[in-house]
Design a protein that fits this description.
495 residues; alpha/beta; Rossmann fold; Dihydrodipicolinate Reductase, domain 2; 3 domains; ten-stranded mixed sheet; six-stranded parallel sheet; 15 helices
């Protein structure tokens, strides 16, 4: 099957179901007008994996006119999954999208037919894919982190803003009620004065540390050259697993019966490689640090301290401990700690808050593989998952008082709620049609991503870094500055 034309088996039988306007031209002029029922034409770059759930966030209400994936097998699977999602939802199967392996070819051929682009590729391709869309004035929704280099984040933000586009980043927590409640509680004194924030995750759950590449045969369905995108050309490779890591364990893409063994960067274990991903921080930081970033008034840290397991020039560590020194703003200057991974088989978690003394609190903390604690003088807001979707307050008596105060109107809702809770892609599409801005538009998510990536800057430097955000540079040492920008882009990839 030719991948740059509509798949025959998805197209047959669909012609009769094409309704007026199903593949209409771009709706850019509709933004801000009364067109609440208008369907957008959207392209998905990175169609399977996370791209599949991102597709499901918009496909029932809008037209998916193109799917792009460098893996032909996964591309075909993505098209089938999308069709099944419609049928399972009780809706008629939609017209089949055009299928591509190269997003540049897709944009060359379909630019006049699309309103927006969702980018759900590995981190290293976020920048080049989104910038090609932005240069064509297409609205963009990009998975977290926006990029894995700080300079790319700023460049992409500036370009989208200059083009007056509707933007969003795929961090679910920013659409949820819980994050807003936590902010309102803190600002209205529910836990006294905020003193400290502790964050953690069990990631990485994929191979990291000093990994060694080894030559391997590229799967026939994978276009490795396109997978590398802007990165320097190199032969396809796999890598030797670290001691003690069993590739037969079913850990998100590391089950050889369901996919390749866990020593292949495609389709999941690219995350640990600086070249392609951004480690545990890049995977979970934009989720777990999101509420912190909002609560502290979207401030950027002045200094980041670090200790970690051994790293290499190519790969992130097995575990890391970071301390972000935050300047005074809405709250007094304080420290935000981040812990990830495990040490000698034990989860690398912070100490439990002094307010969490009950058996219920201790069990909740023990159970949480990722989470956050906002520690105040009179209580702690605790969330035992990544999105801050359902925060609670300890001690329990204080939480009861807060809920009574909310019911009595003494603690009120002050934060704007999302139009599409738990659906950042749907929220983005909603605002393209109806006007306004998504909660994680680039004005918010670009500095959030910078906040996250500053941790990786310290990890890669293996030293404390002092950050001059105005001039985008480390001031206490010169060596870390080489990690701010990507060393080079392959010809033909940078927009």
């Amino acid at each position: 099957m030719g991948l740059n034309i509509i798949s025959r088996r998805h197209f047959l039988g669909r012609t009769a179901s094409l309704t007026a306007g199903a593949f209409t031209g771009p709706n850019l002029l509709l933004r801000g007008q009364e067109k609440a029922g208008k369907r957008l034409n959207i392209a998905i770059i990175g169609a399977n994996g996370k791209g599949q759930s991102d597709t499901q966030g918009v496909t029932l209400n809008h037209n998916i006119v193109a799917l792009v994936d460098v893996d032909s097998k996964r591309l075909d699977e993505a098209a089938k999954k999308r069709e099944k999602h419609h049928l399972d939802s009780g809706k008629e199967a939609p017209p089949a999208p055009k299928l591509y392996q190269d997003f540049r070819k897709m944009l060359d051929e379909c630019a006049n037919d699309i309103d927006g682009v969702i980018v759900s590729t590995p981190d290293h391709t976020h920048y080049v894919a989104a910038m090609h869309a932005i240069k064509r004035k297409k609205h963009v929704c990009v998975q977290k982190p926006l990029c894995n280099r700080i300079s790319e984040v700023r460049d992409m933000h500036a370009a989208a803003k200059a083009a007056n586009l509707v933007t969003n980043m795929g961090n679910q927590g920013r659409t949820m009620e819980g994050q807003r409640l936590a902010k309102e509680w803190i600002e209205q004194g529910a836990i006294g004065t905020l003193k400290e924030i502790r964050l953690w995750t069990n990631r990485p759950i994929w191979p990291q540390g000093p990994l060694v590449k080894k030559a391997a045969e590229c799967p026939p369905e994978l276009n490795w050259d396109l997978w590398l995108s802007s990165e320097a050309s190199e032969p396809y490779f796999e890598f030797e697993l670290p001691a003690g890591m069993d590739p037969k364990k079913n850990k998100r893409g590391m089950d050889p019966k369901k996919n390749k063994p866990g020593n292949s960067v495609h389709p999941f274990t690219w995350r640990g490689w600086w070249q392609f991903g951004s480690g545990a921080l890049g995977d979970m930081g934009c989720h777990i640090m999101d509420a912190t970033f909002s609560i502290l008034g979207q401030l950027i840290p002045e200094q980041i301290d670090v200790t970690s397991s051994p790293i290499s020039d190519t790969c992130a560590p097995v575990w890391s401990d970071l301390t972000y020194h935050m300047p005074a703003g809405k709250h007094a200057a304080l420290k935000v700690s981040w812990k990830d991974g495990s040490k000698n088989g034990v989860a690398n978690k912070p100490e439990i808050s002094p307010h969490m003394t009950s058996e219920l609190a201790k069990k909740a903390f023990e159970k949480a593989s990722s989470g956050m604690m906002f520690i105040g003088t009179e209580g702690t807001i605790f969330e035992g998952e990544a999105y801050c979707s359902s925060p609670v307050i300890y001690n329990e008596e204080r939480y009861t008082e807060v809920r009574i105060d909310m019911k009595a109107g003494k603690i009120v809702k002050t934060e704007t709620r999302s139009a599409m809770p738990n659906n950042p892609q749907g929220e983005w599409a909603h605002h393209i049609v109806n006007g306004g801005q998504p909660a994680s538009n680039f004005d918010y998510s670009a500095p959030l991503t910078e906040f996250v990536l500053l941790g990786n800057l310290a990890v890669r430097a293996q030293q404390s870094v002092q950050w001059d955000k105005q001039n985008m540079k480390v001031t206490n040492a010169e060596a870390p500055n080489k990690f701010i920008s990507r060393p080079a882009y392959r010809d033909g990839w940078k927009a």
